Amino acid sequence: MSVLFVACSLVLSLICGTIVVALGGAAQTRARAQTAADAAALAAVFESGPYGSADPEQRAREYAQHNGARLTDCDCVEGATEMEVEVALDGFSARARAVIELDKLAPAPVSPQGSATTAGLQPALKRAVDRLIAASNGRVYLVSGARSTDRQTELWIEALQKHGDPEAADNWVARPGTSNHETGLAVDLGGDLGLAVSLVDELGLPLWRPMSWEPWHFELTGMDG
Ligand SMILES: [Zn+2]
Description:
By secondary structure, the protein is α+β, with helices and mostly antiparallel strands. The protein is built from 6 helices and 9 strands. The chain is 34% helix and 21% strand. The strands form 2 sheets. Strands 1, 2, 3, 4 and 5 form a 5-stranded antiparallel β-sheet that branches.
């Protein structure tokens, strides 16, 4: 079972085009500069959140270099969902902006589909989640609720086997003993997460998403971590 699958949709929008500062109609060079900018912007935004492991600007610099260009500007705030870069190549410069659409990210399926229940959740969280799901008319569902520490251990070991490195595993799965799922204080929801968020507002539910990079992970408000 693939525990660690993450459907990640990137949208690349190009802005400003290119600026010609050299003589000659080097359309090919211009295109190469743009490719380098696109690659650098995508690489930078991929480093946002737990799937990345490097500094976005450093990663943008590497990808620009791999494409024969030099990074000249990077509007790359760590953890941001949007990054903008500028590169220079043989007298041409090009800009690109890449955006992660968080709502298209999907939670890791950690239990067989349809088997997740709100059993074992902290009662206030269970009430809120039950109300949210009922109000969604089937458009929001529970992917993962309370997990035993044994289950969390299994998940973490699977991540370790897949990534071969504890730090990389930590990017995907919380270490056993540290996940709020183990204490019944967190749920992962699937389906229409935009609807889930608007229902939280509409119904005044005490739910929030503490981690911007895991938009499916909900906890009770007023709790840390
Ligand atoms: Zn979660």
